[in-house]
Amino acid sequence: MKTKFKLLSACVLTAIAGGAQADAIIGPDLQEMLPNLLESKRVIITTHEKDDLDSVMLQVSAPYLSMQALPMAGASLNKLQIMNIANDDRVKSIYYDKPLKYYNFTSGEITGGHYVHDVEGVTGQGVTVAVLDSGVDATHPDLPMNSKVIENVKILGDLDLLGGSNYFLEGIPNTDTSSGHGTHVAGTVAGTGAASATDARRANYHDGIAPNANIVGLGAGEAISILFSLGGFDYAIANRERLGIDIITNSWGSSGGAAFDPNNPINQASYEAYKKGMVVAFAAGNDGPDDDTVNPYGLAPWVINVGAGDPDKELTGFSSRGVEGDTFKHVDIVAPGSGIISTRAAGTPLPALSPVIEPDYPDYHLYYAGMSGTSMATPFIAGVAALLLEVNPDLSPDQVESIIRETADDMPGYKFHQVGDGYVNVKAAVELARNTEGNRRDFLNGQTAWSSQGYWRDIDQSDSNIDYTSRWKLVNSSDSFGGSYLQTKKRGSKAVFDFVGESLQLVYQANDTGGRGELFVDGRSQGIVDFYSQTPETRTFAVRDLSARDIHSVELRHVEGKINLDGLKVDGELLDNGMTVVNEEFYVEGTIGPSAENVQTQDFRFYADDSVSFIDSDLSWDGVADLDYELLDPNGESVASSASLGNPEVIGYAPTEAGYYTLRVNGYASVLTNYRINTTLTKLVSN
């Protein structure tokens, strides 16, 4: 074998032009399939910008189904199509359209649980809950069409349908014809109890926890998958204002064990719903009692992850658990989920397993059934959220979750990763909601508790990447971000920094001597920052929905009086002011083969220091051969790979640590083959 290794000249780009773009993220399930993929697979493609979606999808020459509001599409693609589209820098990610499952655990035990509206006089009036599930039978007397179920949608996800348009059948009286799961869920949220109106124990005995809330049914059918669930989120987001959707309840998901993946399209969709002010609840799953069994879509910190309890306020054996000490893998709250009686969709299999048999009420078996599971606990929490929003419509999604968790009853003998903050206490939650000042307006302006990656990067005002012009003085304060903040009253003063990311929050102190500043991003004013307050308080000024791919220049300019900078919360990374993007290129030439049945492997090591933000590399060759390509990190783990049928094979990776990386060429059934590797290291360096 003959090998050449040569360093080419570096190409320098200014930071103003924006950061370098990575290849698309390939979801872990799809990565595992690709090396041996022979047939087409249904995948979810996400672009960075919604406007790019159609032009990207037209390249693959295959039918696709695009979302209305989300920058996502579903398509059935082969290996070559997947790898080709992954090289388009407009594509953010490609994930397998994984089949999902509804969560249910049938039981003969029958319990009530819908009593809160009788005790508190709060019924969810004026609040709308979207039920993303198998569908809703709005012919049921407890779930009447138009008055209770204000819209009932059947989601059709045939990728060959209508040449790439969403297909939602609206106004369907019964969308739950094959399962019964969604109807039971809808009744738990907001069933009127009309079929039990004459019950001697209590009128409307089997009503839901929020019986006067409205329902929007989003019927994904019995065989739900990522594509169908994305369609439900997409519909809810696109029609949020028209239908007044406040909450989305999701009693479905996948098996636990996976790490929290903020780039998964479902997590991106739930984050988009959260950003727009909707409370999102997910079932934790029914794979307990083992640890690390929580539904991966419940791990997102911006959703309420719900476990199931019994009438004795104990955790059920089937309720999924998280992992002790893990930041994301835990249940948030436990709610009634054992033997819950709710609405039965006629002629469907799930409720038929446990009908309500009461001699005094012989018709109940037609209308009600008992079911158990986190599927039943989750709509209970969605209904509780409706009660809180009725008494205080100004609550943000962050506040709704915080109130539910803060007022929960302790569950002695259980750990946080198993039960979160405990068993829901509806009465206490409603009382606290009444006495909480809502901050929904600030939330919608970008002051969210969570970033798109699940955490904000906290940066102190003393960070070396923030430059200050003119005179700023240090002020010690126990109330400030890091124990002190920088203040100025000098005209023309600025605090200047660059960052890569889609949103940020400026943290500052307001008091009775405060003045005014103005915040600029990329030369455009984002508004006046008011530093005045009658009583001292910590405030934030948010900027959101920026391009996550670019380097953004930010300036806080003094206008009048005293202004200050306490710190930053960044959904991304802070850079040195005037940071430059440098592309360093090298190539490798080699020969591999011949090989028949056994793979031949050749490795080439290179060093990536802390300045390397991205590694782009492609493998090309002469003649007919099957070569695959991968990148190994300093620990020897494969972190990027390309195993298409095409030439070249292309990989990309954003390194998380400095060290020696390995480019590996794998040769399958090849003749003697000459190849070339071209690699670009994108570096962020100071001028």
TrEMBL record:
Keywords: Hydrolase, Protease, Serine protease, Signal. It comes from Kangiella spongicola. This is Peptidase S8/S53 subtilisin kexin sedolisin. PANTHER family: CEREVISIN-RELATED (PTHR43806:SF11), PEPTIDASE S8 (PTHR43806). The active site is at residues 133, 181, 375. One of its GO terms (molecular function) is serine-type endopeptidase activity. Pfam families: Peptidase_S8. One of its GO terms (biological process) is proteolysis.
